[in-house]
Amino acid sequence: MAEPTTILAVDEGPLPRVPVGEWVDTAIDWLKDNFDPFFDAVKTGTETSVEGVTDGLLALPPLLFAAILAALALVVRSAVFAVGSLLGLLLIQSMELWEPAMQTLALVLVATLVAIVIAIPVGIAAAKSSRVSAVVRPVLDLMQTMPAFVYLIPAVTFFSIGLVPGVITTIIFALPPGVRLTELGIRQVDRETVEAGHAFGSSPWQILRGIELPLARPTIMAGVNQVIMLALSMAVIAGLIGAPGLGQVVVTSISRLNIGLGFEAGLSVVILAIFLDRLTSSFGERRREGGLRSRLVRRRTAPAAGTPVVAAEDTVPASRPTAGAGI
Amino acid sequence: MTALRVDGLFKVFGRHPDQAVDRLRAGASADDIRASGATPAVIDVSLAVEPGEIFVVMGLSGSGKSTLIRTLNGLLEPTAGTVHVGDDEITALSGKRLREVRQRRISMVFQHFALLPHRSVVENAAYALEVRGVDRRTRLAAANEALALVGLEGQADKRPDQLSGGMQQRVGLARALASEADVLLMDEAFSALDPLIRREMQDQLLELQARLGKTIVFITHDLNEAMRLGDRIAIMRDGRLVRLGTPESILANPGDEYVERFLADVDRSRVFSAGDVMVPTSTVSVDVTPETALAALRERGASALTVVDGEGHLVGVVTGADLLSSSGDVAAAVRPPAARVTPSTSLADLLAPAGASEAPVVVVDESGRPCGLVDSRAVLAALAGSASDGRPPAGSVGDRADQLEGSRG
Ligand SMILES: Nc1ncnc2c1ncn2[C@@H]1O[C@H](COP(=O)(O)OP(=O)(O)O)[C@@H](O)[C@H]1O
Ligand SMILES: [Mg+2]
Questions:
Q1: What is the ipTM of this complex?
Q2: Quick one: pLDDT band at residue B28, thresholds 50, 70, 90?
Q3: Do A199 and B73 touch (CB under 8 A)?
Q4: pLDDT value, residue A10
């Protein structure tokens, strides 16, 4: 398509213009022409699932749902966290942002689920094979460093504007830490322990299920936590292309220069982010810290442990990587 | 039938391992191979381990011990050579068949325990049986039995990290025992433990071994541990097996400078026993004349005799000087021995009595009959390892099998 002469004529510089942008355009046109049924199916599936989850989240009265989430916070972590979560969620409701908040939450949940389902097997494959790792790594680098807005353009090309391109870009943007931390977690598993598995005659599958995944769990969960944080930040950006939720509220407030509304929406995002971050990071910890669940588990399995049950504090363990969310 | 046999084993890491083996066979040195970018970890090792034996492999760090032991259960595939466990040729098996051998015939204990932190102690001990597909109730029962065997009753429901290092390694041992394999591989199994605990573990292993009669390949870089545990010891240097023999024969006759340097800091008083240093004694009855006794002394070329009563019970010892200065009969010249010990008493336990008395120590057999004498000079000479031929001064040592493999290099 490109005529070399015009390309060279762009500039007097010593290098010819390499038409990367045109190649990408061509590739995307080709994909659009040849995989239309596929994109339609993706579109329908995404819409159905996100809207289903949104309806589910909105089915309960906000106060009741906030109370349920607070109870969950109490079980997995602590009373302080539960009270904080309840107050935060009630604040969202009182700012009349409950519905967009639940739309954002649904988008994040679906995108996270898909991202994890892709990321963990890819991470395992990369941990097992240096060749896979060598291929996957630059792709992840590209996905992570490419400015988020750039994803929006092809997503809109394939799926037009609205919810679906929002979900797709969110998945792509949130995926990399899931893969990376799964690979890291499995590679970090103590070599001798894996060797012990082999020495007693375990099959590769038994070693993965019984040794590697359980020992890598804290690292994998840190990855899941980061996936969620990235998904949340991208879900807000996706408001630009019409994905419903808090992002759209932000976009509206920008276009109307409504600082108050923008701040309220931003605050709601922060509340959701903190809630999701603390909630998921406590899944990655060993069942030792102060949450109600761990106390129950410990009392059942090891009565002799003898540690007095003290009121747990809502502290973030030092080992947890900080969530890289653009909030 | 040997429990474990290794024939012409080579393991070379790095580039072109097969070529490296050919060159080693043709006489190249390990350094030549290293210069070409490959690491020869095990070079032409052959050995056979008998059933019920504790076979110790010893050597400095990097001498190839871990590599060798990992070829025994197929964790590493040798570059050349074969390994047999019983009739199974490990080196010819792969996949499912190899896993079956590991599940049933050969198990392993690891230096840093390698327990699963997310499982309870009893679930760890049951691991081998779980892998094999034994049902839960049976395998937990077997695991509890194995835990009792290593003295961990009552710890079954704890997590490994609630136990001390010594106890964690007992779990490791229980896991290996529960698998019911006859061959046990132990790679520096006690090296991560502090000295007191380590000794306890060694005692426990010896005791278990006496009861269960497993075949054990035990790796260590600690000579004292090797000497305590080993029925036979193989010494590795730079990938080669340079010496193979009983602890006493190696200590008595190191063979080369490398082994000698190794031996420099061994606690010899715990390796040698009264039986190793005693001089076989002549016994006279208490009612013979001093002349008869002196004649017996001269004939023997010894400095003292043991004296027994009419029923063969030990009365004491007499020296030549005692006999010459004695006026009447032998009974008047007899003095009590410094101590009465059995042949297996260690030199460490002989030091005090041998030093305290001028009379020699009498060594008696199981039926209480005197069979040898040990004087303080013999004890000192054995400790110094200074006898001119490199052996302890009096030798029952030479009677034992002493397979001198020698350095092939
Ligand atoms: N997987 C490996 N890859 C490359 N070299 C190795 C590997 N494992 C061991 N080696 C090398 O083989 C030699 C013997 O190592 P090892 O068997 O661990 O000795 P030891 O257990 O006696 O300390 C060392 O030089 C070591 O660096
Ligand atoms: Mg080693």
A1: 0.71
A2: confident
A3: yes
A4: 53
Do B261 and B280 lie in a common domain?
A: no
Buried b (16+ CB within 10 A) or exposed e, B344-383: ebbbbebeebbeebebbbbbbeeeeebbbbbbbebbbbbb
Domains identified in chain B, total number: 2
The per-residue pLDDT of chain A, averaged, comes to 82
Shortest CB distance from A201 goes to which of B102, B117, B120? Answer: B102
The model's pTM is 0.73
Structural domain contains residue B241:
yes
Residue B17's CATH number: 3.40.50.300
- How far is the C-alpha of B124 from the C-alpha of B169, rounded, in Å? 11
Question: B397 and B280 share a domain?
Answer: yes
Q: Is-contact B52 B211, C-beta < 8 A?
A: no
The whole-angstrom separation of Cα A165 and Cα A169 is: 6
**Domains located in chain A, CATH noted:** 97-286 (1.10.3720.10)
Paired tokens of A292: 């109600």
Domain assignment present for B91: yes
Query: Do B240 and B324 share a domain, yes or no?
Result: no
Residues B237 and B342 in one domain: no
B41 in contact with ligand 1, CB cutoff 6 A: yes
Q: A287-299: per-residue pLDDT in tens?
A: 544 444 544 444 4
Give yes or no: residues B286 and B221 share one domain.
no
Give, using CA atoms, the residue closest to atom 10 of ligand 1.
B41
For residue B278, the 8-state DSSP code is: P
* DSSP string for residues in B234-277: EEEETTEEEEEE-HHHHHH---SHHHHHHHTTS-HHHH-BHHHH
Of A204-208, B111-115, B346-350, the one with minimum mean pLDDT is B346-350
Among protein residues, the one with the nearest Cα to ligand 1's atom 6 is B13
Instruction: Write out the residue range of the structural domain in which residue B295 sits.
Output: 274-408
Residue B123 forms part of a structural domain: no
Q: What is the pLDDT of residues A66-95, one digit of tens each?
A: 999 999 999 988 899 999 999 999 999 999
